[in-house]
Design a protein that fits this description.
This protein starts with a strand and ends in a 5-residue tail after the last strand. Strand 1 and strand 2 (about 15-25) form a beta hairpin. The protein has a domain at about 90-150. About 35% of the residues lie in helices and about 25% in strands. The protein is globular. By secondary structure, the chain is of the alpha/beta class. Helix 3 runs parallel beside helix 5 (about 135-150). The structure holds adenosine-5'-triphosphate (ATP).
Length: about 220
């Protein structure tokens, strides 16, 4: 589904990531950990073709990212839901419109019933008409997850989705990601939170990728 072969990435200085080879199988659940500045967000950006590798090959849904034109990239991204670290919204639009925006942009429009189901699922049905600045950190994170999955993506990539949340809210968000995985979605979550990883491992066979010394490697069962 997502495959890296001897991938390197540099923003112009020295290499941030070197010789990364791995494969995220369909339906798998992975965490990505590593110190601040190690390249977790950069790795996720490579996964959704926001960045191109400076060396090696990345394959998304069996297509080499270098062979994709702009339309192909847009089509590929529709199969991927991304929860960004900063969860930005359009502040003048109500939550419901923000969540359905990806469907609108893709020219699909979302059925009102689907949107209601989705907001119910993330526990935000009562806030459908609220404006983003009125939402708490946890509500914003859950809204960002709803927006990421409105197009029924095959893959969900989340960058520190529980970064600003208390433990109870983190577990709630994790439960939603585990539910998505049980529905067959491939999940990749960048996080610093080892407790979150431990909690996930009690629910799903999650694996841990660790960035260290520019390499991304599978961690052992002990984290
Ligand atoms: N657009 C950019 N141009 C140049 N350098 C960048 C750019 N984006 C990130 N970097 C640098 O690349 C390194 C990795 O950044 P990245 O955001 O991928 O790390 P991270 O592991 O996600 O960090 P954190 O855990 O703090 O969010 C950092 O040193 C950062 O300053």
């Amino acid at each position: 589904m997502i495959a890296f072969e001897n991938v390197a990435y540099s923003y112009g200085g020295g290499e941030l990531l070197s010789d990364v080879s791995l494969r995220l199988a369909p339906g798998s659940f992975h965490f990505l950990t590593g110190p601040s500045g190690a390249g977790k967000s950069t790795f996720l950006k490579l996964c959704y073709a926001e960045l191109q590798p400076t060396a090696g090959r990345i394959t998304l849904f069996d297509h080499d990212v270098r062979s994709l034109n702009r339309d192909d990239v847009a089509r590929t991204r529709r199969r991927m839901g991304v929860v960004h670290q900063d969860c930005q919204f359009l502040d003048h639009l109500p939550l419901s419109a923000n969540v359905t925006l990806p469907a609108m942009v893709a020219g699909r429009g979302a059925e009102a019933a689907d949107m209601k189901d989705l907001l119910n699922w993330v526990g935000l049905a009562k806030l459908a008409g609220a404006l983003p600045p009125q939402l708490s950190g946890g509500e914003r994170q859950r809204a960002a997850l709803a927006r990421a999955v409105i197009m029924s993506p095959d893959v969900v990539l989340a960058d520190e989705p529980t970064g600003n949340l208390d433990w109870e809210m983190s577990l709630r968000l994790l439960t939603l990601l585990v539910e998505l995985n049980k529905m067959g979605k491939t999940i990749l979550i960048a996080t610093h939170d080892l407790n979150l990883i431990r909690a996930a491992k009690q629910q799903v066979p999650a694996r841990v990728l660790r960035i260290a010394k520019r390499r991304v490697q599978l961690a052992g069962a002990d984290l």
